[in-house]
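Morning!

As promised:
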Amino acid sequence: MFGVARRLGASNTSVSRFLIGAVALGFALLVAAVLASTWIVGRSREHSDWVRHSYEVEVAVARAQVLLEQSETTRRGYLLSGDPRYSEAFDGFQRQVGPAAARVVGLVSDNPRQQANIAEFRRRAAALARSQSASMALARSGRTSEAMRDFTREAAHTPLGLIRGVVARMLTEERRLLTERRAEQRRSVRLFYQMIALTGLLLVALAVITTVTLLRVTRDLQASRDEARRLNETLEDQVAERTADLTRANDEIQRFAYIVSHDLRSPLVNVMGFTSELEAAAQPLGALVDRAEAEAPAILTEEARLAAREDLPEAIGFIRTSTAKMDRLINAILKLSREGRRVIAPEPLDLAAIADGVVASMRQVIDARGAEVEVQRPLPQVASDRVGVEQILSNLVENAVKYLQPGRPGRVTVTGRQERGRVIVSVADNGRGIAPADHQRIFDLFRRAGAQDQPGEGIGLAHVRALAYRLGGAIDVDSRPGEGSTFRLTLPATLQDARA
Amino acid sequence: MSPHQTVNIVMVEDDEGHARLIEKNIRRAGIMNDVRHFTDGGTALQYMFHDVDGPAMNGPALVLLDLNLPDMSGTDILARIKAEGSPLRRTPVVVLTTTDDKVEIQRCYDLGCNVYITKPVNYESFAQAIRQLGLFLSVIQVPDAED
């Protein structure tokens, strides 16, 4: 049971640690995914800005070129037709070329190559503008043929064609940048999706592992709960089984004791009987020896005299005392065995009244020994077997009064208290005490402690212990030689009726 | 001839010593009837029911019965003697045994035992009890066995 619990506990700790770790890792992954997404979205917006920027540059360059082309067209129109509307339009377009080019300069400040291009554009545009302005001035003052000549000379240098070349270079450059930037944008989008996919995969893996672990732990828990329930359900059966075993073993011992003591009795009757016969037969022999001594001393040998007067009576005496002792021992075993077979009848008992009764029945002995016995009230309530409790108390009080410390009047106190379903009755004396080595031994049959100066067979405490066990209790002793002993009887507050 | 002298005493007792002590003390009480001693149940039953000198064939008897026998329980013998239709069912049976178990005593009386005596271990009491039994035997009337 404990092994199972400990294993479960250890695995629980490690499992819960694993689960907490897994959940924390999951959250960390989510946070990382969010951060990565934010970063990638930022990057993506940056790329889009750059793409837009490229378009703006293209538009601005184209606008500058268009303005330039239109100023050229209106100049040509004016030179050819002399229509003043062309002249006005030319002024308007030419004024706008400068700011349009300046705008491009502002846009391409980040790109040195484009800066060089736009600088060339502006230089060439300015040169063109100067020659345009000169030819326009000639034309306005009526010198159209001079203006035409200048124009033709100027056209030989193809200034517009050069400017177109610059513009084309600039547009090509911007296209290149655009392609690059779009590629970058696509890369970052792809990276974003990859990151999302990776995070998703990790989360799924984590979820799977966590779920599997949880399932396993749940299954383990279920299994141990089933096991615990099974044990719990069979507990009573097991207890009943053990109790039945114990009862059987106890009955066996009781029967054994009974049979043995009975069968020992039979030969003992013979020994005692024939010893008596022997004694009876020795009497006429003794008389005969007496007569022989008086009437014919010559026939009486010293050996015959000794045999009849000393050896025979001595031998018979020893046989008698020994058989008497054996008889007492066998009776003690029989008594114990009978006590074991007696039906226990629990009833509510007034311990104080029982203790008083025990003391009263021993009054003569107690007074003769000059001892005092006090029953301290209150004594707890107990439901047990009256005869058993009486016999135990009687034995304990009798012992307490019997084994006194010489020169000290005996004082015996009977106390009791209740402790969680058990009742503890103590019989304390100030007698001669018991050596620690004998604290267990005194409860064994035929064993006694200390000076063997009191009559007894060593049965009382064995009987007490057997009784205490039968009543579902226990007995122990606390004692110091020369100071006194305290016997503690522990009984269940309510003894279950075995017959019920 | 007085009826007492015709009564045979059948003693079923596995312990020779006990048997000897019982016989001695019966004699001391002045009972001089013939005592037949058996140490096991089988032989005793054979004698009582089938022997020509046995009580079933030949006159009244009194049975002294020990319960602890090697081959059978004394109560079995008691049951056979007191059984319905047994020629010996009026024969007085004195159970004389070491067993003092209350249940056993009741059982013996239920089976029809006439007297139950527990052998005292103390010899003086034992001798006393047997002598009193002897006195008792000297006055009781024993019926004839049925034909």
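The radius of gyration of chain A is 64 Å.

Hope this helps with the figure draft.
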